[in-house]
Design brief:
With about 325 residues, the protein is mainly α. It is built from 17 helices and no strands. The longest helix has 29 residues. This is TOG domain-containing protein.
Length: about 325
């Protein structure tokens, strides 16, 4: 093994390692500026607020500025013919404030100038259906209010518009009445009550029957309530024309619905049918001097012929408790 020579020379100086320099954190503003300037970030930078610029009006503030005028406070239009001529185009406006104004004009024409609205009623209804799909709460509520005024002033609406136009309107009302937004739901329910009270019950009942099997249970419930309103207004002749067995079958199906609102409406339908049936049977009994128990037997016979045994018993029980 080789030995290092012993002498007085110092070993070669070892190169000193560089000292670590403390990192200084960049101020937040500078860091943000660097991040904004860095290429490939891919994110859009938000505009800085300018304290000298006027604040922009938000959509919520605009909707609060829209006034919901009750029907009794709507005055006649200043120029009704001109309003009627441009109504459909105004209802189709992309400016939602103008659309709200046009909806109120439609309400004015329905209340005070129905003769001018009648020739264009179908086009107006289709335009209203379109506004009922608006995401703006103000447009949505005003459009439903317009439906209420049209129902109240055009009782036999089905004679003035096509089945397609009315079907689209009815579907939107049922959907809006089934919403979670309370103010929308309440306004739609009000419109449906006006519809059931003003339109002939038989043709309306035929339209509502299709929604008993709707996939949305809330839509079924709202349709059931409207059916109960129609049944309450029908006499025995109208029920027979619709089919008393069919009406009992509708009620029996709704009795098994998941929502209490639908089940309660079904009980109301059964009570209306039984009331009309008993009234006719009592009138015949007086003419033919029959006894009252025959009325109950005839009712049970109708139920057993129209419904399965379990449903017939349930319907008969409801009729007995309503007496």
């Amino acid at each position: 093994m080789a030995l290092r020579a012993l002498d007085n020379t110092m070993p070669a100086a070892v190169e000193e390692r560089p000292k670590k320099v403390a990192k200084v954190a960049a101020p937040p503003v500078a860091a943000a500026a660097v991040k904004a300037a860095s290429p490939g970030s891919g994110k859009k930078q938000k505009k800085k607020n300018d304290e000298n610029s006027a604040p922009r009006a938000t959509a919520a503030a605009g909707e609060q500025a829209v006034e919901y005028i009750p029907s009794e406070e709507l005055e006649a239009a200043a120029h009704p013919k001109a309003k009627a001529a441009g109504l459909v185009a105004e209802l189709d406006s992309k400016d939602w404030i103008r659309a709200c104004e046009a909806l109120n004009d439609a309400r004015r024409l329905a209340i005070h100038h129905s003769a001018l609205l009648n020739p264009i009623l179908e086009k107006v209804m289709l335009a209203i259906v379109k506004t009922m799909k608006s995401p703006r709460s103000a447009v949505l509520k005003t459009s439903i209010m317009a439906c209420t005024d049209i129902f109240n002033n055009f009782g036999n609406l089905l004679s003035s518009v096509s089945d397609d136009a009315f079907d689209k309107l009815l579907l939107q009302l049922l959907l809006k009445a089934s919403q979670d937004k309370r103010f929308v739901c309440e306004e739609a329910e009000k419109a449906m009550r006006a519809m059931a009270a003003s339109m002939p019950p038989l043709p309306l009942l035929k339209k509502l029957k299709a929604y008993v099997h709707h996939a949305n249970l809330r839509v079924r419930a709202k349709a059931a309530v409207a059916i109960s309103h129609c049944a309450a207004r029908m006499n025995i002749e109208a029920m027979k024309e619709f089919g008393m067995s069919v009406l009992l079958q509708v009620a029996a199906e709704l009795l098994n619905d998941r929502l209490p609102e639908a089940r309660e409406a079904a009980r109301s339908v059964v009570a209306s049918v039984h009331g009309a049936f008993a009234k006719e049977a009592a009138a015949k009994g007086k003419e033919e001097e029959e006894d009252a128990p025959d009325v109950a037997a005839s009712w049970e016979s109708l139920c057993s012929l129209s419904l399965p045994p379990i449903s017939a018993q349930a319907v008969a029980k409801i009729a007995a408790s309503s007496q």
